[in-house]
Specification:
By secondary structure, this protein is α+β, with helices and mostly antiparallel strands. The protein contains nine helices and 20 strands. The model has no long low-confidence stretch (mean pLDDT about 95).
Length: about 375
């Protein structure tokens, strides 16, 4: 697989990061302690490089109608400035990717797919755009994405924004985005600031041209007081998103699965009048009760012992396999093991006692409602 490097690769090297391949990108796994990075995000703030994510602009008179067709959500119903979580599916309802779409104008949208799926999503969008008056432009290679996540995120970023513009940040709602003037490296530049996040904490994402990424990264780090902010890698990002019950493509989501079994039925807009790719299959799956009365359903599992279930470990009921773990590890915040797993629907109710086969030894777990962790607001 070809190795790609983000515009911040040298920053990570200078910070002593350990690297790992993720979706073909060399990304920081951790800088020092993944536990310290996890706790920093829960208690103060963490600084993440998300530049491996894709950025795809969809523009033109037919943009809203096109995205209604290409994705399962009703994108045309979004107000300018808002963001929406959605899925791009195959004709059979299988999930190609989960992604976030930002509406930046009446006929201008930014679609952000996952790193490993970016090229596939661009290809699918281009193919689906044939009969629409739109332009699909892949800006991923030229765009960096920096995230600041945690209770102190807003306070830190405000130090880079002119005082008279602070309201742009403080009044930005969850799942929304706005152009904000940031002052760094001696210049003031308008950048797209989003408030979505993948950690269960309040936080922001900043889209910036590759050429300015290092200067912005360094300025954010310099704006933080001692102990307020530390760089955080993929290891802590994974433990944070797991505690927040957020799915990861390749673990909980795949082409073989479907939105209903994954608990993402509300994302699918079968009420919209227009057709969309996968509609017939998804209507049939919903009618069959997929994920509710048959097959398997994604659930949260709380470990009652000390050992954690890991991806692909079997889930048991009275010694019989009834499911499989998709993600699992000890929860640094909660102090016990947590896991996401697909289990037979008859065993999916919260409170159900199950076991996970940990390499030949059964450990007790209990089905619980998601998310495992929810921040106080």
């Amino acid at each position: 697989m070809t190795e790609n490097y983000t515009a911040l690769y040298e920053e990570h090297k200078n910070l002593g990061a350990s690297f790992t391949d993720f979706g073909g990108w060399q990304m920081p796994l951790k800088y020092s302690s993944e536990l310290a990075e996890h706790h920093a995000v829960r208690q103060s703030a963490g600084l993440f490089d998300l530049s491996h994510m894709g950025e795809v602009w969809v523009t033109g008179p037919g943009a809203a109608a096109f995205l209604d067709y290409a994705l399962v959500g009703k994108i045309s119903a979004m107000s300018v400035g808002k963001a929406k979580y959605s899925l791009i599916c195959q004709e059979d309802g299988g999930i190609i990717d989960d992604l976030i779409t930002y509406r930046r104008g009446d006929s201008k949208f930014l679609v952000v797919p996952n790193a490993g799926n970016a090229k596939v999503v661009v290809g699918a969008l281009a193919q689906r755009a044939v009969n629409f008056d739109v332009v699909v432009e892949d800006a991923s290679a030229a765009t960096a994405l920096i995230a600041v996540q945690g209770p102190k995120a807003e306070e830190i970023l405000l130090r880079l924004v002119p005082a008279e513009q602070h309201a742009l940040v403080t009044e930005l709602k969850y799942y929304a985005a706005v152009e904000v003037p940031f002052t760094f490296a001696g210049n003031t530049v308008e950048l797209l600031l989003a408030r979505t996040g993948y950690t269960g904490e309040d936080g922001f994402e900043i889209f910036v041209d590759n050429g300015a990424a290092s200067a912005l990264w360094q300025s954010i780090a310099a704006a933080a007081e001692d102990g307020e902010l530390i760089p955080a890698g993929l290891a802590s990002r994974d433990s944070l998103r797991l505690e927040a019950g957020m799915p990861l493509y390749g673990n909980e989501l795949s082409r073989e699965g479907n939105p209903f079994a994954a608990g993402l039925g509300p994302v699918v807009s079968l009420a919209k009048e227009s057709d969309f790719v996968g509609r017939s299959a998804l209507e049939a799956l919903k009618a069959e009760g997929a994920g509710s009365t048959s097959g398997r359903k994604l659930v949260g599992l709380k470990g009652l012992g000390r050992r954690a279930g890991r991806s692909h470990y079997p889930v048991l009921k009275d010694g019989v396999v009834v499911g499989e773990v998709t993600s699992g590890q000890p929860s640094p915040t909660l102090g016990y093991p947590v896991a996401l797993a697909y289990v037979d629907v008859e065993h999916a109710e919260p409170g159900t006692a199950l076991d996970v086969d940990l390499r030949g030894k059964s450990e007790p777990f209990e089905v619980v409602a998601l998310p495992f962790y929810k921040r106080a607001k």
